[in-house]
Every structure is written in C-alpha cells, then in structure tokens.
Amino acid sequence: MKKLLLPFLLLAALKLSAQDVEKIHQKAILVDTHNDIISNELITGNDAGKLQTTGNFDLVRAKTGGLDVQVFSIWCGDQYGNGTAYAYANREIDSLQALVRRNPDKMVWVTNSRDLKKAVKQHKLATMIGVEGGHMIEDRLDYVDSLVKRGMCYLTLTWNNSTSWATSARDETLHGDTLKHKGLTELGKQIVRKLNDDGVMIDLSHPGEQTFKDVMAITTKPVIASHSCVYALNPHRRNLKDYQLKAIADNGGVVFLNFYSGFIDSTYEGKHAAFMARHKPQFDSLRVIYKDYDLASIRLNELNKAEADQLRPPLSMLIKHIDYMVKMMGADHVGIGSDFDGAESYPLGLDSVTDYSKITAELFKIGYSKKDVEKILGGNFIRVLKANKGK
C-alpha cells in the first residue's frame, strides 16, 4: 500500500507546485534578512521607491515578489573606523528613514514582531535594520545604545575586518598566525551580553570560528546567521560548518540562506576571477566612477550580462544548500537572507526580489510541506525576533 501511495503523493506535490504555489507564496509572510540597497543608494542616488532597471530591489518589484519584511543592511567597509564608521551608519539609517517617509503607503518602520505583523496586515513592507559590522560601534557601548534606539534588530559582530574585540572569518582564515588574539576579548564578551540584554539578535555570518565558539558559550538568546551558506557543499571561509549549523539549531537560532553565487558554487570564484581579468580596464573605470569595489563588480556584470550569466550556478544548487540545512538543523532553523544588491551574481533565475516564489516552487517540488515552507519563508524569523525582543 505504501508503495502505491508514494507516487500519488509526489504527483500531488507536483500538481500543487504547478497550480497553487504563487497563491501560497503570496499569502505566506516572506522575510529577507539581508539587502544592501541602502549603501548603494548613497553612491548612485537612485530611489528604491520607484521601479529601477538596475540592481535587485525596489518597492515596486518587492510587492510583485511577495516580500513582506525586509531587514536592510547598514554597512560600511573597513576604510571607515573610529571617528567615521558610526557616523556613516547613521547616515545610512537617515537615508532609509527618508525612503520610508517618502513612501508611507508602501512601507513602515518596525522594531518588533508585534509591529511587524501589524504592517503585514496593512499590506506594507515592514522595514527593519541590521548593522553589518561591529566596527560601526567603534568599541563604544553607548553607540550600541544609540543604534538600538534607532532600530537595530541585529548586529553582525564583524564584517570581513576584525574589530579590537572580535575576529572575523576572513582574518582567522587568512591571517590567523599574525592576529593579536582570536575570538572575543573581555570587551567582546561584554558586548555580547549587552546585545542579549537589549534584545538585539547576534549575527554570526561574518565572524571567525573562535568568535563563534566564544559567543555560543555565553549567549543567553537565540543567535542568527543573517546571510550564510553550507561549508560542506562549498568550503568557503564565509560558509558554516556542520558543527556550527548544529550549534545554532541547538541554541534555537536560525541560519538565513545567502544567494551569492560564490557561496553557493565552489567553482564560481575561479571562473569569476578569469572574467574579472578579461574585463580589468572596464572594471578599473567603473571603480573610479563608483569608488566601491562591490558596486563596480555589480555594474560590470550588468554591462556584460550574457557572459556573466554563463558563470552563474543553477537554482538547484541553491536549493541543495537549503535542503542540507533543513536535514542538518530542522525546518525550524532555516530562512532567507538573500544578500541582494550586495553581490554581483546569484543563481540563474534569481535576478531580483520578484523571483522569491521560484524557491517556494522548488521546495514544494522536492516534497516540503506547506507548514515547513512557511517557516522558512518568514515564520522562523518572527520566532527568533520575538525570542530576543520579548515581543
């Protein structure tokens, strides 16, 4: 009987994906925990409130894609430090708040799960901020307080650059022998405890393994990785190893999947390096124009789209990362953190925020239940946010 039933269940899943996926997708609460459009807007002057022909996000396309909650990344590179990084973070927050004020019918500022759900019911984009890089607090606890008041829902303890109190995955991997310390210092432990007390989610997407271990030893709240992938499928220093995935699940936290091709596909970086070498003069010119490496890379790919598309992995490769996480951690601990507008390449078919439903369709095709899909799309974020905020 079971052998006869299995083909029927598979057929039902396929039928659902063909006829009803979009309806289910639009009805579910969809949360994306990482988007870099705000730092790009400060450079380009584009208005994300209007339909754009470049980049991955604007409010028009977000509505089409069924996006209900966006955590916007507040980010600056390591060229900013003490005396400049905190000010730049506030400039980005000001820019995002101006976008909200210009579009009161489309988006609303929220800081907790209660207001998030209210925004969803009003059919407005629930707008939140995550601060990507501990260097933006400039070693000052009062700056943590200020960013909390401005709405910071998570702090990524490091970006690629280490701070005086926490070491990054990049530095631990590439410069481990020359670091003055690895992991958290006493100040770092103090900051982690303060984030717990303030209801700010601790983001472990960029920190190194020793920092990760130190955090997990002392945190009293569920942690997140706001935009990460699976090390076992692509051994990149930014991806999470199995023990890290298990530790986050045991902690009650959530890993939000990054869409970047370089984290999804182990062959991408080599192919992209050759692409960059072929287009070096053009890239150098774009870098002069934009004064930002990542944005210049994004524009280079847009200008050479047909060639750049040949480097992109298939969508199935991204689905393998989600499925691996779910099998390792359980469906309660996986979510979406696209890194849209923060990288030059994503899997084929994922061109913008209009394309999230393609992931929903693929999950149904491989047998995921409606309940588990809804958890991955947004339910898990709401749970971990409430666990940290208390509301």
UniProtKB/TrEMBL annotation:
Coiled coil: none
Domain of life the protein comes from: Bacteria
Keyword Cell inner membrane: no
Leader peptide range in chain numbering: 1-18
Keywords: Signal
Name of the featured protein: Dipeptidase
Organism: Mucilaginibacter pankratovii
Higher taxonomy: Bacteria, Pseudomonadati, Bacteroidota, Sphingobacteriia, Sphingobacteriales
